[in-house]
Amino acid sequence: MGETILKLDKVTKVYPNGTVANRDINMEFEKGEIHSIVGENGAGKSTLMKMIFGIESPSSGTITYKGEEVHFASSLDAIKAGIGMVHQHFMLIPSFSVVDNIILGDEPKNGIFLDRREAVRKTQEVSDRYNFELDVTEKVSALSVAKKQKVEILKTLYRDAELIILDEPTSVLTPQETEKLFEQLRSFKKQGHTILFISHKLEEVKQISDRISVIRNGVSKGTYRNDELTMEQLTNLIIGRDLESDIDRYKTHEDFHNEKAAVIEDLCLERNGKPVLDHVSLAVKKGEILGIAGVEGNGQLDLVRCITGLEKTKYEGKIMICDTDTSGMNIKGRRDLGMAYIPEDRMGDGIAGPLPISDNMISTYYTRDDINTKLFMDNRAIDRISNELIDTFAVKTESNKTSVDSLSGGNIQKVVVAREYNTRPKFMIAEQPTHGIDIGSAEFVHHKLIELRNSGVGILLVSADLNEVMDLSDRIIVMFDGQIAGYFKNARNVTDQELGMFMLGASHQTPEEIGGALND
Amino acid sequence: MQSSLFSLSFLVTVVRLATPILFAAIASFIAASTGIVNIAIESIMTFGALAGILGSYLTQNAWAGMLIGLVVGICTALLIALFSMRLGASPILIGIALNTFADSLAIFVLYQLAGEKGTSASLPTPTLGVLNIPVIKDIPILGQLLSGHYILTYVCWIVLILLFILIYKTPLGMRMRACGLNANAARTAGINVERLQVFSLVLSGLFAALGGMYLSLNYLRIFSKSMVAGQGWMGIAANGIASGNYGVLLLSAVIFAAFRAVSIIFSSSTVFPVDLVSAIPYFAVFCFVTIASVINYYRIKSGKVEEQ
Question: Between chains, do B171 and A272 touch, taking CB under 8 Å as contact?
Fold first, then answer.
């Protein structure tokens, strides 16, 4: 291959609190290659990318771009140098049009005025040149997730990025959309762009990369040509041990006599005059995990908000939790029926950050008799319960009085799961329960969910991670465009390609088949 | 002034009363556009009004006085920027501090310079006048509506148009709105969010000071304590109702002014107690803000808009 476009030399990043995110990273990126950077969550991939993109600056070491040592003070410098980044969480303004989002920061001008016509022409031209099939005058809020990602990529191309960093770009896409993205990335490569592809999905990395660099615990484990590396070798490099997927061992089927933990009938919800939930009916049986697969934004979030009582907009239909109609009930009422909820937004909805672990361990059942005396809360009981939970859930902390937001993501999630576990639920909603946490903690959370299921709890699992849904679920529902598009009675007999077709809306079952979600 | 509802002179009164509220409304709007909550508008209006009068008295030139008032308004805004963005204080607390401080400072300064606690009446001060527009002033009805207003009312109209162009037609305006809507997205697009926020605060201070000086240098021609009388808050309320819609912003400000006009008319009648009548505009603000939030609640509930 050809010339080096970007070179990292002994790049180290130490945060003020002493955390070493990257240590002595040496890497070289060649012009016109697709170069993947893989590693576990928290291995230091994101920090490294932030340094390349000028959001963070290295504590020591040098970054050389196109033969010159660079010190980017902000992402603006990186953008000017020709580096673009597509962030994992979209950096878009929903109420702006596609054009406005793309030109933001580098707007075509006519005197002092914004030249809208030129902006539209220029963005449409870039979009067409790379075959994006986008109407640039549309509002971003009206776009699908895949299209929003296209807008993000287009933003970098509009600014003539030669080096494009994609941070976990496939985490929100279906297998089919991922395939399309890869085609596009290959065509960028042909046009001379260099792609830095960050991912923890190894199949995809093997599929798309020319070369692969591995990071473990902030240290580089070397760069390899894709064709000289097997999947097993790659896995070993990433986690430093063989990964045994032992979830199947836990997959047992105990019979709870078809009792229903929750029943949802004909749930409809409208927003902006558009249906976001369209006659959704399903039942979660005791002792089973019902998985909901689907691309983000196809109604899963709204479904969960309706069931938990978080939704402010009035919905139609019936939601029964443990045989009780919940209409008019607030969140506490529903929880009192036996509902537990692991929310997707861990930091925002899952915990009260500055408060100690002990308080966070009881916050959803603080009125319960065993932690209250007649007048005051029983601090001794709270200490005892929280310490027990810390032990059972292997939360790494000095004490139960440590503020919960000082823990790592995985440990915070363990606190949330421990608390919901201890509500003694009959029905649990687990929303992206392992999103963004390390493999060890994720495995732990999975085992706890299985344990709950085996003890007779009905679990509704919502996840964008197809592997998670397929590994844990007994039955699977695919949501598309606010509807149940597919229902699979036996989660073992379905492939990710098959689910993908339903997630994209390319397939749709008959109402009779879908009816199984409620009636089986 | 003899005027009743549904008359031309009522409309003229509304135009006069609308000017300071419009200034306050755009002061709140421009700060909010980049995501800054400026609740110190009331006090900046007071500072601007006082500085304008004193500047005019000291220089014996109304325009020089206005310039000094503007500088004071901008400096106050920069003070807010310094405390909130550099030193990490809450802009709400700074706003509360300034608002509590403003009237007392005004009294202190007046007493030092004029020997009076309430007004600047004893200081001989040049002030700004009215503007009669040739040709237009002779057209019936239209002439009375468009001509013969205070100079700063015309300044206000021009500023309203320029602000619209800035916010909706220029790259700078687009960047400012982007900061308010999603600061992270703006930042990754290479925009210096903090710089734009300071800029919007400076404009906010400038507009608020103009609103204050309309009252002191132009409309009443003296400074008297508590002359701002909640008009800064009315501007903030108008911005709250508008939630980013420029048309609704201006309309709300004008409606509040209309209620002030109504209260002035009724205050000359002997039927109602004066105190009750002078509460009308404030009660109207209360009602409109309540109605706006109730409407918003039902729009969320019926799924017309998404929860913010």
Answer: no
Average pLDDT over residues A10-26: 82
Does a structural domain hold residue A343? no
Q: What are the C-alpha distances in Å from B160 to residues A318, B25, B154, B176? A: 51, 10, 10, 17
Distance between CA atoms of A152 and A89, rounded to whole angstroms? Answer: 10
Q: How many CB pairs under 8 A join A and B?
A: 85
Structural domain boundaries of chain B? Answer: 2-301
- Answer yes or no: do A355 and A453 share one domain: no
Task: Establish if A246 belongs to a structural domain.
Answer: no
* Segment B113-167, tens digit of pLDDT: 888 888 888 888 898 988 888 888 888 888 888 888 999 999 999 999 999 999 9
Q: Are residues A41 and A147 in the same domain?
A: yes
A396-427 pLDDT per residue, tens: 888 899 898 888 778 888 999 999 999 999 99
Q: Which domain holds residue A204?
A: 4-239
Calpha distance A219→A44 (Å, rounded): 8
Contact B300 A313 (CB under 8 A): yes
Domain B2-301: assigned CATH number: 1.10.3470
Identify the domain boundary among A389, A404, A424. A424
DSSP secondary structure, A10-66, as one string: EEEEE-TTS-EEEEEEEEEEETT-EEEEE--TTSSHHHHHHHHTTSS--SEEEEEET
- Residue A278 sits in a domain whose CATH number is 3.40.50.300
Which residue of chain A comes nearest to B299, CA vs CA?
A313
Contact B306 A85 (CB under 8 A): no
Distance CA A378, CA A395 (A): 23
The more confident residue out of A392 and A520 is: A392
Residues in A lying within 8 Å of B, measured between beta carbons: 55, 74-76, 79-80, 85, 87, 90-96, 100-101, 104-107, 109, 112-114, 155, 269-273, 276, 312-314
* ipTM for the whole complex: 0.82
| A240: number of Cβ within 10 Å | 11
Q: Is residue A248 part of a domain?
A: no
A98 within 8 A of A106, measured Cβ to Cβ: no
| Cα nearest neighbour of A74 on chain B | B190
Residues A462, A385 share a domain: no
The minimal CB distance from B191 to the residues A80, A90, A105 is found for: A105
Among B33, B34, B165, B174, the residue to mutate for chain A (most A Cβ within 10 A): B174
The pTM (predicted TM-score) of the whole model is 0.77
Same domain, A320 and A437: yes
